[in-house]
Write a structure and sequence with these properties.
By secondary structure, the protein is α/β, with parallel strands linked by helices. The chain has 2 domains: about 200 residues, Rossmann fold, CATH 3.40.50.2000; about 140 residues, Glycogen Phosphorylase B (Rossmann fold). The chain is about 35% helix and about 15% strand. It is built from 13 helices and 13 strands. The chain has a 7-stranded parallel β-sheet with strand order 3-2-1-4-5-6-7. Helix 6 packs across helix 11 and helix 9 packs across helix 12. The longest helix is centred in the middle third of the chain and has 21 residues. It is globular, with a radius of gyration of 21 Å.
Length: about 375
Amino acid sequence: MKVALIYDRVNKIGGIERTLEYLHELFPQAPLYTSVYNSRTAPWAEVFKVIPSFLQKIPFFRKRHELIPYLMPIAFESFSFDEYDIVISVTSEAAKGVLTKPNTLHLCYCLTPTRYLWSGYEDYFRKPLFRFFSSPLVAYLRRWDRIAAQRPDVYLAISENVKKRIKKYYGRDSEILYPPVDLKKFQISNSKFQTNSKSKIPNSKYFLLVSRLVSYKRIDLVIEAFNQLGLPLKIIGKGIQETILKRKAKNNIEFLGQLTDKELLGYYQKSQALIFPQEEDFGLVPLEAQACGKPVIAFRGGGALETITAGKTGEFFSPQTSKALIKVVKNFKAAKYQPEDCRKQAEKFGKEIFKKKFKEVVENLIKQNQK
């Protein structure tokens, strides 16, 4: 069985990028097709044979792909998959739109229907003038996106939240297969754990936030809350809003930048709790924290509702405001939560469970096609 993997772009690292690594373990010979590839910012992809589109020839686009959404349909339609038995697209945008012949099966692992065209349209096009001038482009992309969404033979959704969106925007049914957390990498602290020399992690009762620093992650409301609370908050991650957020933050808030997995593990283990303020399609960060035995304070929405048990492995705040978050943090008592309960919750989303189920889906799809 000859397999190809397809991903929207390979120029960053995050939770779903880890999932692609697990798919590589399942299909080690499968190349990874994508629109643009930046090896410096996506070191995880070194294990793949990465095949980028013609957009790779323009270096500027490797970092600023968001400026060329109108070229993404052309980029993915330019590939040929005639030699493959099955292609697996992992996508939140255009990768599902690849063209395949009848003898090549297409399984789409959908992260969400294209967010800026559908569920997140109001956030991305908030300014009236920008919305007005971009409306012809949005109309074109929406038409293409609906057409492209009919090309996969089978859909897998990463959460109940995404399953509903696939049905709403694309009219397609899907099964849920949750992305996995690496239970070997993220563990409860023990006496043998030693941080490396670069990571001198304090034993203070700080709260932790792990995220890309972009607007929809709502880090701004966490900063507003902790500016008032005066409690220690450590923020791990980088992004285009970093400078703006640093200006807003008071001295009790520390920005740590992008850390190694080993450093990240240490900060999870020594934190009081993880703060998760955004509405995510799924969200692996809460599971990483729970795998380390730590509770999560999350906004009541999105994938967090499927991974956190209120009162046992964390708490929810609502509405999505600093005031609501402050109220929950003030009442939060870390001693209430048992590390073992948090760990057991994370174990429901283990890597080996994911790999087993994904392999079964692919094998069943192949069998059905041979009938």
